[in-house]
Each structure stands twice: as C-alpha cells, then as structure tokens.
UniProtKB/TrEMBL annotation:
Pathway the protein contributes to: Cell wall biogenesis; peptidoglycan biosynthesis
Known function: Involved in cell wall formation. Catalyzes the final step in the synthesis of UDP-N-acetylmuramoyl-pentapeptide, the precursor of murein.
This protein's encoding gene: murF
One GO term of the biological process aspect: cell wall organization
Protein source organism: Paracoccus halophilus
Name of the molecule in the record: UDP-N-acetylmuramoyl-tripeptide--D-alanyl-D-alanine ligase
Entry-linked Pfam families: Mur_ligase, Mur_ligase_C, Mur_ligase_M
Amino acid sequence: MTLWTSEDAAAATGGRVTRDFAVDGVSIDTRTIRPGDLFVALQAARDGHDFVARALEQGAGAALVSRIPEGVASDAPLLVVPEVLPALEALGRAGRARMRGKMIAITGSVGKTSTKEMARIALTGQGVIHAAEASYNNHWGVPLTLARMPQDSDFAIVEIGMNHPGEIEPLARLARPHVAMITTVAAAHLEAFGAIEGIAREKGAIFRGLTQPGTAILPEDLPVTQLLRDCADAAGGIVIGFGQHGMASPVTARTDGDTTQVRARILGDTVDFTLASVGAHFVMNAVGVLAALSAAGADVKQAAAALSQWRPPAGRGAVEDLDGIRLIDDAYNSNPTSLAAGLATLARLTGGRRVAILGDMLELGPDEAAMHRAMADDPAMASVDLVHLAGPRMRALYEALPGTRRGLYSETAAALAERVDELVAAGDIVLVKGSKGSKISMVVDALRRTRQSGAPGERTA
C-alpha cells in the first residue's frame, strides 16, 4: 500500500523531486531499511547522505536529501529539500493532518515505552493501529512516527520524551493528540530542571498539543498532581485522573506466580484483566492506558482482555528464566522512583534469595549522592537479601547498607560483570537495574552468557 507519492511528499515538504516515485514506508537506517522505503538522510552522529547510495542499492523507493550525494545519479529517485530534519517534520505534520482516526500521546518520567506498548496491544482487533517503534520519542522520532502513519489508521500512539526544558510542547503540537497521558513524574533528568516541579511543568506541556476538545489523563497520587491538573486546565483539557482515588482505579490486584489478576474501574465500567508482571507500577499504568483508550472511543472491555498479550519490553522489567535463576532485566533506565518500583517487584517474587544488582542513577543533579544513599531506606529494600553495586554514585548506597546486605562493589559495570560467577547462585531471583549510561546491562549480558537461557516459551513476563 502506497504511503507517500512523490507528488504528496513534495507538497508536504516544499521539496523538488528528481523523478516520480511511490513509497510504502519511511526509514532512517540502512541496517533496517526495507525495499520500497523512503530513506531520510538525517544528520546525526554521521551524515545520512553518506548512506543514500547504499539505501537505493538495497531497494529504497526514494531518498529525502538536502543535496545529491556523491556517487548517486542525478536522476535517482530523490526528494531534495533545503534541510532534512525540518522536511521530516513537515512530512510528519502532513501525515497527521490526513489521518482521521484518534491520536494518543504518552509521556512520563518512567514507563513511556512499556505504556505505549500496552496501548498498542490493548487495541488489538479494534481497527488499523499505528504506534511508535521502540523508544522513538525525540525530535526526529515523533515526526518519523507520524510520517510512517498509514492514512487509514483508526488509532495511533506516539511516545514523547525529553531531556531538557522546552522539548515536549513542539512535539505535542506536531502530534495533536485527542488524548494525552502522563504516566508519572519523577526525578529523571533533574539536573536540567532543578526541581521536580520543573519536570512536572515540562511533562504538563504535552496538554498544550491537545485537539479541542481533548482529554488529559494524569496520575492522581503524586505530590505534583495539582500542578499537572493546572497544566491540563490551562490547555482546556478534560481531566481524567488514574490512581487509587482516580476516575480510573484498580479495585483489586492479586499476584499469581508471575502474573497479576486485576479488577479495575474505568470511567464507570468494571473490567478484569491479567498482566504478565507482578509490578504494581505496571498495574497502575495499565489502568491509565485503559482510561486513555476509553476516552479515545475504544471498547474498554475488549482492550482489557487484550492486555493479557502484553509483555514488558526488553530491559524494562521483563522476567526470564536462566539456568538456575530468575532474572528481572530492568537495565534500560533508572531513577529513585523507578528503582523503588523495581525493588518492590523483586520483593513480590518468592521462591529464592532476592539479589539486586544496581548501577548508577544518572542526571539527578547536585543531590545525587543523597538520592542514592536514601535507597537504603526504601521499604522494599528490607526484603532484598544481597545488593551488588557498580558506579561511583552507587558508592553512597553501598556505604548506607547494613553489612549483612552488602554484596560486591565495583567502580564500573564492566568490572562487576567480570565477577559474574560471584554475583548469584542457583535459585536466586535477580534484579538488574541502572541508568543506560551506567552500562549495567553488561551484567545482564554476562549472566546470559554464563547461564543457558530457557526456551522462548519459558519467558515469564
């Protein structure tokens, strides 16, 4: 099915086409490009123009460029524009304008990608569904998601992230969601904002992109909830809170092995669903998702039933059986809120010694040492038998832990990974968590190398 004709793409971007073309996808990476894609020559760590010839050789239907690259014929199928990134934004804006379905946007300090995936899977069977790939949530990820969106999409889900002030609003205005959801507000990227209130205001900026009338889905049980409500009210959004005291709330949540059986009230409807996780934060995000889908006009009971097919994305809390141990791979990101959630998940799992392997939490600002140290007093930490730590910031937590709970400490994740045989024993339940930049995923890789992974069907969450 044709996604963009040369005529439509040129009209959207104001560019010049060298010859007529039709493409059925959009790509920025020659490693994953498919025949018939439009290759977008973005300039990032490397200049995408250096890969145009390869993209065309691999079957790209055309390329979006700001110049004719060396080694590419002048009559190759090209869309030539003054600058590539603004042209991709324009293509995304045009893709959004022609879509007549419902747009849902998701942001939050924790859980954006897993929540986006929840929404995508929950919508199974309810029409043509389009969702952001992976964690494509930044200045090029959002327009790329919109540019890839089929015109006949019934529902679309975009993920919007940020590292610095002022990033969310323009992306939200580009997406123009009918429903915008904030998963939570936590001390992530705190060094760029100074205080949690600054993060809340930036997250609340997603509501400025709402279509009118639009719906704001926000967490009810935070210290900054009122600030988020103020942001939604200022944007003219219809506010729906989710949480223990929200219009969408869990009534009961009962763990059963590696799953959680949930009954929830969603805007007046009672629904039952099963999650392949014991994480309470996943339960709450699922409740928020169902509120968002209900507000977007989806069948909420059908959506709840489909949630049983959801699994946490890799590195974000998935549980798997390795030879002799159970591994909770949560090594993609970390901050005090998400670490507390990870420890709570570890505490809920039973059957063996509980071991936490933790890397530094990054971008927390001047109080980072105190924030690391304070994790020793987290309620769930009392249920952890042994804590191994890596990174200079985690030294503060190591010194705060009682000696009976202290495991190994290394300055780097690489050094800790070299001692993988000393970290765990048969029967252990193991949480590995840290900010991506801490490279604590090296320990996950080492565990997988040294222990035979169970068959794909044995993955438990």
